[in-house]
Design a protein that fits this description.
7 helices, 203 residues, mainly alpha
Length: 203
């Protein structure tokens, strides 16, 4: 407490002045005055005032010490609060960084899911178009003879695709005859008729 020392110095000066006044009165007064009731009364009053001021100084000194202690406690509490605030700010910063990372991860995941959905949509479109193409091919094959079908099937279609076409056809006899010389004829007949080749295909 920077104000304590100046205040005590001022009080010390006041006391010194009072003491000096008493000494001056003693030096300037006549001997008879020392014995007078008035001088004795004045001296007692000055003594009382000095004691009162000394008591006040003690009280103020005690108050100043209490204030110093209170200030020290407040400083400790302030430091603790500032430390907690720093910890909270660090935690908030860490939380904000984690939230930012999560948002970035969610964004990346959403992009992947969107891409996956686009791919699946494209696959569905292609499958749907392929199914329609197979139906269209089956309608065309319905009108063709086995001699026409043989080179087309042999050069352009595998057995799995031919099975799909076969199942969409309404007139299947010519395709069965055309498959007799196909490289994957055994596989085709196995899927369509089982392990046994139909008699129609041997004619």
């Amino acid at each position: 407490m920077k104000y304590v020392k100046p205040i005590l110095m001022i009080l010390h000066g006041v006391i010194t002045i009072f003491l000096g006044t008493i000494v001056a009165l003693m030096l300037t007064a006549d001997v008879g005055d020392f014995k007078s009731a008035t001088f004795a009364k004045t001296l007692k009053e000055k003594e009382f005032e000095i004691q009162k001021m000394a008591f006040t100084i003690v009280q103020k000194d005690s108050v100043f010490k209490e204030l110093e202690l209170a200030q020290s406690l407040l400083k400790v509490q302030k430091d603790n609060i500032e430390s907690k605030i720093d910890s909270i700010q660090q935690a908030n910063t860490s939380l904000a960084n984690n939230l930012l990372k999560i948002e970035q991860q969610n964004l990346e995941y959403k992009k992947k899911e969107d891409k996956k959905l686009q791919n699946q949509t494209r696959i569905n479109e292609l499958n749907s178009r392929r199914e329609q193409d197979i139906k269209d091919i089956a309608k065309t094959f319905n009108k063709m003879k086995s001699k026409e079908l043989k080179p087309i099937l042999k050069n352009h279609y595998d057995s799995d695709t031919i099975v799909k076409i076969y199942r969409e056809m309404s007139v299947k006899k010519e395709l069965i005859l055309a498959m007799d010389e196909h490289p994957e004829s055994v596989k085709f007949f196995s899927k369509v008729f089982g392990a046994k080749k139909p008699k129609l295909a041997t004619k």
